[in-house]
Amino acid sequence: MDRRKFLAVATAATGAPLLSGRTAAAAGGRLPALVRRYLDRALDAGSPSAVCGVVHGARTHVAGAGEGPGGSAPDGRTVFQLGSITKTLTATALARAVCAGTTRLDAPLVLPDRFPVPHKGPRRITMVDLATHTSGLPSLPPNLLAGADPEDPYAHYTLDDLATGLGEITPATEPGSSYAYSNLGFGLLGQALAFDAVDTMLRRRVTSPLGLRDTTTALRPDMASRKAVGHLAGAPVPDWHDHVLSAAGSSMYSTADDMVRYLRAQLHPARSPLRAAIELTQRPRFTAGDQLRVGLGWHLSPRSGGRTMTWHNGGTGGFSTCAAFNRESGSAVVMMVNTYSEQTATDPRPVDALTFALLDELDAA
C-alpha cells in the first residue's frame, strides 16, 4: 500500500458492512469452546494474536490465542490500541455533561476564538451533530496528511495546525442533514468539552467512574510490559500517538477485561454510576438508512429475528477492534487483534465479521 493510501484508509472510518444474522446454539456451558473457535478464525485471518471477551447473561468469559507479550498467549489484561471504540467514551462524556446541565445536545460547537468553526447553511454545527456524524465535516482535517509519518499519522499534528485546517474547510452538507463518519468531528467534540485537556476529561468523567483502569492514552510502565505489538501486513509497526484529536480514538489503549466491564455497563446501565449518561448514548438520534441508526457514538443495526445490535469498531495502524451488544438478550462481544485490517466495498474486516457472528450465536442461544 502506498504512503498516501495508507494514511487515507488507516485514519478514516472503520464502519463495516454488516453480515446477515446467523443462528446457532451456544449454551452457556460451551462458552470457552465457542470463544476458542472464533479466536482460531481470527488467527486464520492473519492476526498474530487475538483476545475475545463475551458476556452471556450472568456469565463472562475472556480468552486469547496466538503469541502475546513475552511469548505467552494474550489474555484479558493484554493491552491493545482501542481505536474508534473510544468515540463511545467521548459520547458518554458529552452525555454526562448534558445530564449535569453544563451543555445541551443542541448547543452549538464553540471553540476558542482562533479556531474558526466551519459552517454551511443557516444552522450552526451542534454537539449532537458531532456525536452522530451529521456535522458535514470531512473525516480528517485537510492539512493532517501533509508531513505525516505514515506509521504514526497524528503525532505531528498540533493545535496550531488544527486552527489552520479548520479555516480551510467548507462542510459537504448542512449540519444535521446526512450521515458521514468524521474523526475530525469527534476530535472537535472532545476539544469542545475540555479544550486541550481531553484525555484528563475522559479519565475523570468516564473511565475512572466505570473502573476502566487500563483504558487510557497514557501507557503506564506496567501496561507497557503487557502490551501487544501492532502489525501491518505481517510486520511490526509503532503505536499511534495524538494529542489534538484523541477523542476520536487515535491513541487510546485498553484491554479486553476493561471492555467487558464497559459492555456490562452498556447492558445494565441501572447498575452503573453513569446510568443516565449511558442510556442517553444508546438512544437513536439519526436514521442513516434501513440498516443503520446512530445514537451518541454508538451505531444500531437490525439483525435477524427483530433483534437490534449496538456496536462500534476501531483500528489504528497496527490494531483492529470491535465491540457489539444486544440488551434484549443480555449478550455482548469484544474482539481485539494486533493487526491492521482493511474493509472492502463488499466485505467487512475479519474482526468485525467475527464479532457480529459470535454475538448472533449468543443471541440465538
Written overview of the protein:
- This protein has 11 helices and 12 strands.
- Helix 3 (86-100) packs across helix 7 (198-207) and helix 3 packs across helix 10.
- The protein has helices spanning 3-10, 31-44, 86-100, 127-131, 159-166, 183-193, 198-207, 221-224, 256-267, 275-282, 350-364; strands at residues 49-56, 59-66, 79-81, 231-232, 235-236, 253-255, 286-289, 292-294, 299-302, 308-315, 320-326, 331-337.
- 30% of the residues lie in helices and 16% in strands.
- By secondary structure, the chain is α+β, with helices and mostly antiparallel strands.
- A hairpin with a 4-residue loop joins strand 10 (308-315) and strand 11 (320-326).
Helix content: 25-40%
User: How large is the count of helical segments?
Assistant: 11
- Rg over C-alpha atoms, rounded to the nearest angstrom: 19 Å
Low-confidence stretches: 1-6, 8-13, 16-27
- Class computed from helices, strands and strand pairing: alpha+beta
What characteristic shape results from the CA principal axes?
Answer: globular
The counted number of beta strands is 12
Q: How many angstroms separate the termini?
A: 41 Å
Mean pLDDT: 93
| Elements, N to C (H/E) | HHEEEHHHHHHEEEHHEEEEEEH
**Largest β-sheet summary:** 8 strands, antiparallel
Oligomeric assembly: single chain
Query: What share of the residues does DSSP label as strand, in percent?
Result: 15-25%
Q: How are the strands of the largest sheet arranged? A: 2-1-12-11-10-9-8-7
